[in-house]
Amino acid sequence: MQRTLAAEVPQKLGETVFLQGWVNNLRPLGKLCFIVLRDRSGLIQTVLYDRPDLVKDLKEEAVIELVGRVRPDARAPHGCEVEVHELTIIRVPVETLPIQVNRPHSVLNTKLETLLTHRVLALRNPEIAAIFRVQAELIHGFREFLTHEGFLEVHTPKIVASGTEGGTELFPVQYFERTAYLAQSPQFYKQMLVGAGFERVFEVGPVYRAEPHSTTRHLNEYISLDIEMGFIESEQDLLALEARLLRHIFARVQERCAKELAIYNVTVPHVPEKIPQITLAQAHEILHKRFHKRTSGDLDPESERLLCRYAQEELGCELLFVTHYPKEKRPMYAMPDPENPALTRSFDLLYKGLEITTGGQRIHQYELLVESIKSRGLDPENFAFYLEVFKYGMPPHGGFAIGAERLTMQLLNLSNVREASFFPRDRTRLTP
Question: Which CATH superfamily is domain 6-91 in?
Fold first, then answer.
């Protein structure tokens, strides 16, 4: 008999169905027992009559399968329930559950560390599972839009000889007789593939940052949604592309994740045709004049929150581009602004008070790139594999990267980015 999913049961009134899943709730009442079954699609109420021999062995989170008839019942969730004719207990828990998974996460108020320690059980909770259904649609929308725009999905090495940022935030790996590193980003390879003739590429993959942070916004391994595009005129082409990309992504989530968005009581943001943008210098001025906060250099977390508050109150938008970062605050490949070479044609995108994107136009001239590498105290010979493509005709290009977990976190108003990672890797956690 073909399996029916819980979500399909309301369309099968009067029919006999075969269900498989976990016991989410168990409620014996005399000669009958209500069993709420949970599968990947959701929950459905079933009722078992006159089988005390089976009920005595049942436990919450037991794996079962059953055959029963669907009947209408206005009192039941979804307006129907399944009257069980046959029930098979496949497996029952061998120990007491360390956490409850059948009540709303918001009601349980379990500490995040406990949920992460017992992650597989926590992921059974429909409220927690909803995070990753939304995230999957965010990523699917990313792929769908870019493929339609003529981008090619690529897969670049995650074991590399050196960092793309030229810094020390690298995880070393013993690679036979040599020391290699986990990739901080696919940046070099994205650019190389643009120069190889693919012009437009994107990647969905893990990146690794050996940053000893223990904050609500940092992970040491996360999923990066990377884009690189050739034949651009300036970074403004990238800002326009990201606006269209986010509109598509959020529209897809709104269409396909209504139930999950309702669980978190959120709506997708309105993405205008042109997302508001300010320069970093203007950002510092706004922070000083409006919020009496004196700042310089890069933006700290409080500044990001205040700027998004300004954008929401004055510009009616939850999103804000900050552009023209100083050269010393950006990587060696960032294109200097011709009007002020001390600045770069780079940007960050802030969403609800958090940076979710970094990007910009890249240097495409070989001589200028070599000069930039040297200015950082680095040896161009160490980047020979990367520089090769720039010797033989590199188009103007640029790109950006979105952190999938941060985007998910901000959309759903989660309090910690680790909630948006299946099995997060942070300063102290290597398991599960």
Answer: Nucleic acid-binding proteins (2.40.50.140)
